[in-house]
Write a structure and sequence with these properties.
homodimer; mainly alpha; Tetracycline Repressor, domain 2; 9 helices; elongated; DNA-binding
Chain lengths: 196, 196
DNA sequence: GCCATCTTGGACCAGACGTTCCAAGATGGG
DNA sequence: CCCATCTTGGAACGTCTGGTCCAAGATGGC
């Protein structure tokens, strides 16, 4: 057998993902990728293809490794509205403080960037999973009598998903986390049954 | 008096605005601006400065000439919840069909692009105006007894503003307008008084 | 330890980028 | 009609871009 790669492709892809996430695809040059990963251009192109392939692979990693676990946790959390509240609390915390503060959500950012069909497909899947997570949490809430009667679960799930995009968008520009929390609370309060 | 400009600076700026709006700042080259406007590089640089200045001026024009009139119409529309419903209807229609379909909102897109302080200031003002418009419409709704009792007007205004960002974000990726409408309706329904 | 096979470093490329520059042209007060 | 003053077209600039290429190095089956 011939020579093998001298690096872990997924570990490198994670560094690339973080770079594109923070700075955006168009604003990030191959030279920066080379610097951040320590790889040479040859290894980069041989492993991932050109810049656009690299971006799509990084975005796919983001969606699968970062977003989806959150969405599945939301789906599987049977508490109902408290599960949704916890989702937004953790989201806003992650978006406004710590290592990834003001990076926004890579998928939300990607909506504004290009029109690449591969990217669009990833974003549609991302949205479907997010909405499905919200839908599942809302169903649990309804089953426990937490919801205002007559609430449309599908429409409310869409609303909550769109709200998450709004949080992601504004957090990247440095929005006040308390304002974002108030917005999320308003959504939950308006779904909640009045006299429980 | 010496020679005067052979073009209307604001008319040209509008073409530039549309270019940056549709394609994004980073993805648009000066060569495209030259082609779209018919101006020469000299006139462009003499009138607006470099690319970043040009982008900021275009974004300012967008916020002032396109967004703010909508926000003021919302503020001044005394109907309450129907005013908010009309706002979202028109928003979704404009984002998904017609000349600007799938362009998103230039200000929402700008959140994802750079971290330029001038841009951020514009976006903060944009957000304040949007939220203020929602707040005014909600106050009118409350005055007319349309609102669920106990609703927090400030928090609900923030929620509706964030929802608008979500609509803008997803519409750029080609979201189904009916899904967006359902999301907006869910927000309004959950604010509405149950037995009017 | 040899060698076919793959990886790696880094030089290199053509083209696109934003920006500058200046000669030529247009303008209108005098 | 002249001339000071500004605008305009387009050539030119250095830099940076994404991408290619190949000699040198590493690997492991034999």
């Amino acid at each position: 057998m011939p020579d093998i790669k001298h690096f872990d492709p997924d570990e490198v892809l994670e560094r690339v993902e973080r770079l594109f996430w923070q700075r955006g695809a168009a604003a990030t040059g191959i030279a920066e990728v080379v610097a951040a990963t320590g790889l040479s251009r040859s290894s980069l192109y041989a492993t991932y293809g050109g810049k656009q392939d690299l971006y799509v692979k990084a975005l796919r990693r983001y969606v699968e490794q970062r977003s989806q676990p959150m969405f599945e946790a939301l789906s599987g959390d049977g508490r109902g509205l408290p599960a949704i509240a916890a989702f937004f609390d953790r989201l806003i915390e992650a978006r406004c403080a710590g290592e990834h503060a003001r990076w926004g959500c890579m998928a939300t950012n990607a909506n504004a960037e290009g029109t690449d069909p591969d990217v669009r497909r990833l974003l549609d899947r991302h949205h479907d999973r997010l909405r499905a997570g919200m839908r599942a949490a809302l169903a649990a809430a309804e089953a426990q009598g937490q919801l205002r009667p007559g609430a449309d679960l599908d429409a409310s799930a869409e609303l909550l998903a769109l709200l998450a995009y709004g949080v992601n968008t504004r957090s990247r520009a440095g929005a006040d986390p308390d304002a974002l929390r108030k917005g999320a609370s308003a959504a939950l309060d308006s779904l909640r049954r009045e006299n429980p």
